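Dear support,

Our group has been running a series of protein-ligand predictions, and this particular one with shikimate-3-phosphate is the one our PI (initials K.S.) wants archived with full inputs and outputs. We had some confusion internally about which version of the output was final, so please treat the block below as the authoritative record. The input we submitted was:
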Amino acid sequence: MSVISYKKFCVKPGGKLTGRLRVPGDKSISHRSIMLGALADGVTRIRGFLEGEDSLNTLRAFQAMGVQIEGPVEGEVIIHGVGIDGLKEPLEVLYVGNSGTSMRLLSGILAAQSFSSILTGDESLTVRPMKRVIAPLKQMGANIQGSQDDKPPLSIQPVPRLKGMTYEMPVASAQVKSCLLLAGLFAEGETVIIEPQSGLTRDHTERMLTGFGYEVASQGARISLQGRRRLTATTVDVPADLSSAAFFLVGASIAPGSDIVLEHVGVNPTRTGVLDILKLMGADITLFNQRKAGGEPVVDIRVRHANLQGITVPERLVPLAIDEFPAIFVAAACASGKFVLTGAEELRVKETDRIAAMAEGLKTLGVDAKPTSDGMKIRGGKIGSGTVASHGDHRIAMAFTMASLRASGPIKVNDCSNVATSFPNFVELAHTAGLNINAS
Ligand code: S3P
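Confirmed final output from the archive:
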């Protein structure tokens, strides 16, 4: 169950992307399929599961809590659900590596258990903010502590029973919403979450709960559920991850002569900001073969090269494209005119500070990029060559790899091992599609 990872990429300039590709399974949906499958009554079968380090860490955490899980074998996982009260005390600290989603969502489940637990992660995760889940979980009656400044590791002690509550989220975060909905499954009474004005966040948890037969009411920004009901095992078909497809959407858009089809991509409307933003920039993107898989809308996407223009990104699209900005910044660097992003301060607390890391790498490549407190200004032009640091962030590494398609010389990207957290076969797929990439 371990994933091959490469430390460095060296990508020769030029080339174009062609062919049909299926990128790996959606990371958000893969995490949730393990969590709900484990808590359900009966046997859940998952197809298309992301065999990346992040979702594998979620899987390992549930195995450590006594859940029998078979696979993954070519994306298939079988979970023998233990029911809502069936998790067992883990014998060890639960280590979730680089995965903020694992830590934040698991904390909601663990806060409601009759045993104590400790959640920890890697160097990047242990400096990420956890107060956003600690504070509301405490309001529900949880006994959860972070270390200094509410950062991980998180230590969770049992309490008699959580209480449902109404919570207005101060930040647009699907991880916070999902953490509290998961805690709400175990709580007395109703849990109501109100999403902030700044925008709706991804709703995979709500959709998947419904798929497991658990009633969730969603009315615009208000989501609610009653605690102490049961989940029924089901089959989950995980679509390809739009966040991974984003690198190829951008690569094909910027490289003359490109024409690719990305297959079976999830296009949940709470995730499609990247498509809207690229289309506003003039990208040639067509969605076809619309269908549903596991309660989620899925399509095939054709992308051809286009001349992109800089835009001012509408702020309502920011939460809908929050993971795709590293790739979008590369598109902006190849566009004519000015690109302006505001309202995206959340980028500063992702796997790394993505505003600072992207601005630094783009400047190394000779791009006119100015970081701001909550976004970026980029004046498109030529991309040079050089060595950029990914700061251990998978999406920064993959974004700069795509920049090579328009670079004047080779681009070397350091610290790439975390690409394996979300896109374990990135190097192979990128090579097949037409990138001249060497990984070591
Ligand atoms: C995720 C939600 C997003 C996203 C992350 C995955 C999820 O984070 O950036 O990669 O699966 O719920 P926030 O909810 O904190 O914005």
